[in-house]
C-alpha cells in the first residue's frame, strides 16, 4: 500500500470523526445553558486537533503525489504554499467555487499552528487560541480528499479514497 493511500485512509477517518463531533458541537452552539456551553469546549478541542491533523496529512499526501519532500512541520500555510500552482488551482476550485468568499490560503495561514496550539492549550492564554469553524474544517478536508482522488486516482484502491461517512 502506497503512502498516499494510507494518508488518505487517515484523512478519511479524521473527516468521519470530525463530522460526528461537529454535529454535536452545532447542536449546543446556541445554548444559553452554562453546562452545555462549557461542554462545547470539550468538543472543540478534538474537532480542532483532529481536523487540522487531517488537513496536514491531506496536504502532505498532495505533496507526496507531486514527488516533493517536506519537512516535519505542522505549518499548514507553508505546506499549502509548497504545492504546485496546478494542484493549488484544482484544490481551490473544489473549495472556493462553492464558497466564493472563502480564502483557502488565508484560512491555512491563520490556522498554521492551530494543531499544536490546541494540543497544548493549557500552556496558552485563551485569547491566543485561534477561532475556528467546524464547517470550514470539514469543507477544507473534503476539498483535499476530492483533489487527491482526482490527481492520484490510479494510486488509490478502487481508484478513489475511502468514502467519508456523511
Verbal overview:
By secondary structure, the chain is mainly α. 64% of the residues lie in helices and 0% in strands. The protein has helices at 3-28, 34-65, 76-82, 85-95, 104-110, 114-119, 134-151.
The quaternary structure here is: single chain
Give the radius of gyration: 16 Å
The low-confidence parts are: none
Tally of DSSP helical segments = 7
Return the string of H and E elements: HHHHHHH
The biggest sheet amounts to: none
Mean pLDDT: 82
Large-scale geometry: globular
How far is the N terminus from the C terminus? 25 Å
Judged by helices, strands and strand pairing, the structural class is: mainly alpha
Q: What's the β-strand tally?
A: 0
**How much helicity do the residues have?**
55-70%
Helices, strands, pairings?
Layout: H1 3-28, H2 34-65, H3 76-82, H4 85-95, H5 104-110, H6 114-119, H7 134-151
Helix pairs in contact: 1-2, 1-7, 2-3, 2-7, 3-5, 4-7
Question: What does this entry show, briefly?
Answer:
With 166 residues, the chain is an all-alpha fold.
Task: Supply database-style keywords.
single chain; mainly alpha; 64% helix
